[in-house]
Each structure stands twice: as structure tokens, then as C-alpha cells.
Design a protein that fits this description.
It contains eleven helices and 13 strands. The strands form four sheets. It has a five-stranded mixed β-sheet with strand order 1-7-6-4-5, sandwiched between helices. Strands 8-13-12-11 form a four-stranded mixed β-sheet, with helices on both faces. A two-stranded antiparallel ribbon has the order 2-3. 32% of the residues lie in helices and 23% in strands. It is α/β, with parallel strands linked by helices. Bound molecules: acetyl coenzyme *A. The site of acetyl coenzyme *A (ACO) has 24 residues, from helix 2, helix 6 and helix 8.
Length: 352
């Protein structure tokens, strides 16, 4: 039996404030009908002013730890690694993961951020799993969390229609590759030639180093929507198929559910078609939450598990695509986990 990282806890969190399409249509030249038919999104959740990504990450992390503890043991027992996937850290420097670890009562453990935009959660999972199988860590909390509402141009109907805030997390422990929950493989890739397609131009060393104020609008997130659509379908399909071929999920042992990055239902349908899967096999929750970036895949997974759509024993393929450009897939057989909706009252917020 070979050593593997095994998923043993799952949790997710979205902030309470809901913004339905109709509210966007009051502010922008758009309509509920356009957003629904072009993206499949009906509403999204948005943080309150003053809240930040770590607030969401802590809530999702707490639920994942409680889910891991539900089968026995203390919530935070043995966690020695926190990896946070995010492109909207609380501050440009330092990373947000150490604050999240401290607020979860895990202060002192290894903690760092991973930035791969919408592919961030799959990358973070791969990094944590590799550290566990190498023996560098024993038990990891892997979180995807983003608050894109903080970086969108208030006047941009395209991005405001798509993005929402949210977070999801899993707990990984070391175990054997033939156990339910074992991560069976990864496929990761990137194409820096497409870095301009999904970007926030200002705020990093490239523009800051000139000393000139950033051109108006460069502080906001921008995306070449149609080109990104094509790249998303192509790269998620290719990455997912590479991994399926590598781990031999064919014939009677083929994929049961695909949990893909939730950006547009038309992208999800196209990926399903490319993989020869039925619509029911592709998990969809973007209607309720929009594109929550690094939170998207674990949030969709948690919704699907809560709804009984992803069940113990299912062969589950996670696949994501995002800025960088980046893409990645992961595979596992779903374990029998207890989801814990709200284990304990909210922890204190970081005072700024
Ligand atoms: N309401 C009304 N009209 C709109 C809206 C809106 N919310 N948004 C765009 N339009 C308009 C455009 O302005 C354009 O008008 P024009 O023809 O007069 O110029 C028209 O609709 C068509 O624009 P397209 O961009 O071609 O529309 P499309 O059907 O491609 O939908 C969308 C746009 C939803 C952004 C789509 O391209 C998409 O989903 N792209 C992929 C997004 C994605 O996958 N992101 C994941 C990675 S993001 C990350 O990593 C953070």
C-alpha cells in the first residue's frame, strides 16, 4: 500500500448578504434575464464593508475541522499545516494563512498562501498532499477563500454579474492510497503567455516600481471574458482527461461526479460534453453563489455532499481553471464524511 493524503473533513461558508441579479440590474445596464441565460447565475453572496478574506477562511476552516472531528477526536488535533488559496489576501504582505491559523487556535503551525486564482484550491491541495506524503506534515487544513467584491470595478457589468465571495476547506490526514478519500493524483499546468487575460494591473511590483500613480481602473480586476471562456473549456477538459487516463478511470470504473470551477454554466456543460458525461454528473451550484474563485470548488463540493449528490464511494474529479493562466485537476473516491453546518459561535474578528 502506498502512502497518500486522505480527505477527512469538509466545510464551507458564504457571507450572509445575498445580492440577487435584480439588485445588480438596478445599478448597472444589465438584467436578470441576461445574467441567467448567459451565465446560469441567479444570485451571489457579498461581504460587509470591513470584512475580509480571512473572516471567510476562518468560518470555512472551522467547519472543516468540526467535520473531521465529528468521527471522534478534537477539532484541531494534530493539524500542523495550513495552506490558504487566495488572490484577495487581507493585505498584499504578509500572507493571510498565519492569521487564519492563529484565529483557529492553530498558531505555531506552518502556514502560507498559494496564488493560482480560480485554480488555487487544486494547487493548494496538491501542495499540501505532497507535503503529507513526503512526511513534511501529518495533517493539513487546506482552504480556498476569496472576496472578489473588494476588487471589482463597481461599473463593470460583466465581472459584477459573475463574481461572489465565499470559502471552502478540507482537512487532509496521511493514510493509504486505497482508502476512501485518498487523493489519487493531480494534473497541474499553466500558460503565462495568457497572464493579461485575467488580471489586476496595479498593486504589484510592476506598476508600483515606476512611482507613478496607477492609470484609472488598473486597481480593479479585469477579464477578457470570451477568450477566457474558450481557454477554460479547453484546459479543464484536457486536464481532467489527462488525469482520468493516468489513473485509469475508464469503462465500469469511470467518473461519477465532476466538481469543476463554477464560473459559467455554459462552461460546465461544455466540459461535460468534452468528457462524454451526462449533465447530472456535473455539479452545479453557481446559480446560488456565482464564481467564488478559490472558494469555488470546495464550496460546490460541500453543497453537493450536503444535497446527497456526491455520495460515499463516488469517483470524484475536481477540475479548475483561472488566472495565470492556470489549470489543474485532482481525483479521489468520496469518503463517508459528516458535514457540520455551524459547530460553534463565530470566533472574534481580527481588529484592524
Ligand atoms: N449584462 C448585459 N450585457 C452584458 C453583460 C451583462 N452583465 N456582460 C457583458 N455584456 C455584454 C457585453 O458588453 C457585450 O456587448 P457588446 O456586444 O455590445 O460589446 C455582449 O454582452 C457580449 O459579450 P461577451 O463577453 O461576448 O459575452 P459572453 O456571452 O461571452 O458572456 C461572460 C460574458 C459571462 C463573461 C463569459 O464570457 C464568461 O463566462 N467568460 C468566462 C469567465 C470565466 O470562466 N472566468 C474564470 C476564470 S476567472 C478567474 O480566474 C478569477
Amino acid at each position: 500500500m502506498s502512502r497518500a493524503a486522505v480527505v477527512c473533513g469538509l466545510g464551507a461558508w458564504v457571507p450572509p448578504r445575498v445580492v440577487p441579479n435584480d439588485v445588480l440590474a438596478e445599478q448597472l445596464d444589465t438584467s436578470d434575464e441576461w445574467i441567467r441565460t448567459r451565465t446560469g447565475i441567479e444570485r451571489r453572496h457579498v461581504i460587509e464593508p470591513g470584512d475580509a478574506t480571512s473572516d471567510l477562511a476562518v468560518e470555512a476552516g472551522r467547519r472543516a475541522l468540526a467535520s473531521a472531528a465529528a468521527r471522534g477526536g478534537a477539532e484541531a488535533e494534530g493539524i500542523d499545516l495550513v495552506v490558504l488559496a487566495t488572490s484577495t489576501p487581507d493585505h498584499p504582505c504578509p500572507a493571510t494563512a498565519p492569521v487564519v491559523a492563529e484565529r483557529l487556535g492553530l498558531g505555531g503551525v506552518a502556514a502560507f498562501d498559494v496564488g493560482a486564482v480560480c485554480t488555487g484550491f487544486v494547487y493548494a491541495l496538491a501542495v499540501a498532499a505532497s507535503m503529507l506524503t513526503a512526511g513534511t506534515a501529518q495533517r493539513a487544513l487546506v482552504i480556498g477563500a476569496d472576496t472578489f467584491s473588494t476588487i471589482l470595478d463597481p461599473g463593470d457589468r460583466t465581472t459584477r454579474a459573475i463574481f461572489g465571495d465565499g470559502a471552502g476547506a478540507v482537512v487532509l490526514r496521511t493514510g493509504d492510497a486505497d482508502e476512501p478519500g485518498a487523493l489519487l493524483g493531480f494534473d497541474l499546468g499553466s500558460d503565462g503567455a495568457g497572464s493579461d487575460m485575467i488580471t489586476v494591473r496595479a498593486g504589484g511590483s510592476r506598476q508600483r516600481s515606476t512611482g507613478e500613480p496607477a492609470p484609472e481602473g488598473d486597481q480593479y480586476f479585469s477579464m477578457a471574458g470570451r477568450a477566457v471562456f474558450t481557454e477554460a473549456v479547453l484546459n479543464m477538459s484536457k486536464s481532467a482527461q489527462n488525469l482520468i487516463d493516468r489513473i485509469g478511470w475508464t469503462g465500469d470504473a469511470s467518473v461519477d461526479r465532476v466538481v469543476a470551477h463554477q464560473a459559467n454554466v455554459r462552461i460546465l456543460r461544455a466540459v461535460g460534453d468534452q468528457l462524454g458525461l451526462a449533465d447530472e454528473q456535473i455539479v452545479v451550484n453557481l446559480d446560488k453563489v456565482g464564481n467564488t474563485v478559490a472558494g469555488s470548488i470546495p464550496l460546490a463540493l460541500a453543497d453537493a455532499v450536503a444535497a446527497g449528490d456526491v455520495r460515499p464511494g463516488h469517483r470524484v474529479l475536481l477540475t479548475g481553471f483561472g488566472g495565470g493562466l492556470t489549470w489543474g485537476s485532482a481525483a479521489l473516491r468520496w469518503p463517508d464524511l459528516a458535514l457540520v453546518p455551524d459547530p460553534t459561535p463565530t470566533l472574534r474578528k481580527e481588529q484592524s
